[in-house]
């Protein structure tokens, strides 16, 4: 079964953890000094925040899958639609070991498809030859974050 994934870059991790914990009426399932994650069941979403981005806002979207067959199916869909697929394979990112690949939509929004294989003690790592030229250690191809800024209080909606 797939779980929707959203990763947001924040400026203040403590204030954001407090806000999202109230919003979701749930404590994070993982907290680090620069990262927090909620694994919600209603709605079924993996919502993560970190201070690792260049600006506050939505960084990327994605789907977390339960098994390698679902991950392969998503890769096949992307290839059938002639999408450029960046296959990272096994990597460490966001305090987890994962098997993942990426696609980027026509607006430049990065979509991550991944299966979590286990926890990791570090945020991310880059092994020689694992990353394409210009890509960061983890969490998507460089230059593709959504970067939707937070609207100040009192601003017009939508």
Notable characteristics:
disordered C terminus; alpha+beta; 2 helices; 2,3-Dihydroxybiphenyl 1,2-Dioxygenase, domain 1; 158 residues; 8 strands; 8-stranded mixed beta sheet; globular
Structure report:
With 158 residues, the protein is of the alpha+beta class. The chain has one domain: 2,3-Dihydroxybiphenyl 1,2-Dioxygenase, domain 1. Strands 2-3-4-1-5-8-7-6 form an eight-stranded mixed β-sheet, with helices on one face. The longest helix is centred in the middle third of the chain and has 13 residues. The two termini are 31 Å apart. 27% of the residues are buried. The C terminus is likely disordered.
List the SSEs and their pairings.
Elements: E1 3-9, H1 13-24, E2 30-32, E3 35-41, E4 44-50, E5 57-65, H2 68-80, E6 86-93, E7 96-104, E8 110-119
Parallel strand pairs: 1-4, 5-8
Antiparallel strand pairs: 1-5, 2-3, 3-4, 6-7, 7-8
- Unreliable stretches, pLDDT < 50, 5 or more residues? 127-137, 142-158
| Integer tally of domains | 1
Query: Helical amount among residues, as a percent range?
Result: 10-25%
Total helix count? 2
Assembly level = single chain
First-last Cα distance: 31 Å
Question: Considering the protein shown, what is the CATH homologous superfamily?
Answer: 2,3-Dihydroxybiphenyl 1,2-Dioxygenase, domain 1
Kindly report the spatial arrangement of strands forming the biggest sheet. Answer: 2-3-4-1-5-8-7-6
């Amino acid at each position: 079964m797939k779980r929707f994934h959203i990763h947001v870059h924040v400026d203040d991790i403590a204030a954001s953890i407090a806000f999202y914990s109230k919003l979701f009426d749930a404590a994070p399932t993982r907290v680090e000094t620069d990262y927090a994650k909620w694994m919600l069941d209603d709605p079924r979403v993996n919502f993560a925040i970190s201070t690792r981005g260049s600006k506050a806002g939505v960084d990327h979207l994605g789907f977390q899958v339960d098994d390698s067959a679902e991950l392969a199916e998503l890769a096949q869909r992307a290839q059938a639609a002639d999408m450029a697929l960046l296959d990272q394979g096994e990597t460490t990112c966001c305090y987890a070991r994962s098997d993942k690949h990426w696609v980027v939509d026509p607006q430049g929004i990065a979509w991550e498809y991944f299966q979590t294989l286990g926890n990791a003690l570090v945020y991310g790592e880059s092994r020689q030859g694992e990353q394409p030229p210009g890509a960061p250690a983890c969490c998507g191809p460089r230059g593709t974050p959504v970067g939707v800024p937070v609207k100040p209080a009192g601003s017009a909606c939508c």
